[in-house]
Amino acid sequence: MDHEPDMINSPKHYTAGGIETIDFMRAKATTEEFHGYLRLTVIKYLSRAPHKGASLEDYKKARWFLNRLVEEIENERK
Predict the structure, then answer these.
(1) Does the reported pTM lie above 0.85?
(2) By the 8 A CB rule, do 48 and 35 touch?
(3) pLDDT recorded at residue 53
(4) Are 25 and 40 in contact (CB under 8 A)?
(5) For position 2, what pLDDT does the model report?
(6) Residue 72's CB: how many other CB atoms inside 10 A?
(7) Terminal CA-CA length for the chain
(8) In whole angstroms, what is the distance from residue 32 CA to residue 49 CA?
(9) Which of 37, 40, 48, 55 is the most buried (most CB within 10 A)?
């Protein structure tokens, strides 16, 4: 039985080349840059969600990026 791809948590196209794109970005960015990227991505998904047919998907993506930001900050405090 084929399962539909998880377009929120692990879209298949994000790992093309063998590494999750966000992990590569984290490795190349400063902490401040990466936090800014995550914050701005949350804003992007929240602001466009009401204008798209797939608003629930965009709200879930915003939540994913916000959760990632919270995890980053929590891990830095350990």
Answers:
(1) no
(2) no
(3) 84
(4) no
(5) 58
(6) 14
(7) 42
(8) 26
(9) 37
Q: Is 8 exposed, middle or buried (0-12, 13-18, 19+ CB in 10 A)?
A: middle
Question: Can you give the length of the chain in residues?
Answer: 78
Provide Rg for the chain, Cα atoms: 14
Closest C-alpha to 7, from 50, 64, 52: 64
8 Å CB contact between 66 and 43: no
Tens-level pLDDT at each residue, the chain (78 residues): 556 778 777 777 767 778 889 999 999 999 999 999 999 999 999 999 999 887 999 999 999 999 999 999 999 998
Which amino acid, one-letter code, is at 10? S
